[in-house]
Design brief:
mainly alpha, 71% helix, globular
Length: 138
């Protein structure tokens, strides 16, 4: 029996979403004021950070099965900020607190500073429609 390989692992999803968040933070910084696109960008950041926070346990599960408890705990600590920033961003977006959105976006950009997004990326605009999705989850 051959080994089954999952091409859509939690790590790949976290990496893809991290690049999307970095791109969204860059685009949000270019906005002149709160508008439809700024709402979509901020909502996407909140939703993507929530998904990133959920992928952490899936990633450390394999390490814990092998007894790598320290590595698993270190990984959890390294990514613990994602859930916190997701909650802050969600609340700031729903309250339309643009100062709070800017603060959380800056903090997120600082945490994801090592993520490299090329100018010729293939991410598109993943934030389109995120505001509507966030409001429907409310």
């Amino acid at each position: 029996m051959s080994r089954i390989i999952n091409p859509d692992s939690a790590g790949k999803e976290r990496s893809r979403l991290s690049r999307g968040v970095v791109l969204a933070v860059r685009e949000l910084a270019k906005q002149s004021g709160p508008g439809a696109e700024a709402r979509d960008l901020a909502a996407f950041i909140a939703l993507a950070l929530e998904v990133i926070a959920r992928t952490i346990e899936a990633s450390v599960g394999a390490w814990e099965k092998r007894g790598y408890w320290v590595k698993a705990d270190r990984f959890r600590m390294d990514w613990s900020w994602a859930a916190l920033y997701a909650r802050k961003m969600r609340q700031a977006v729903l309250d339309e607190d643009w100062v709070g959105v800017a603060q959380v976006a800056a903090q997120t950009a600082e945490k994801l500073g090592k993520v490299n997004v090329l100018d010729r990326h293939h991410l598109g605009e993943p934030w389109v429609g995120a505001w509507q999705e966030l409001r429907s989850q409310k």
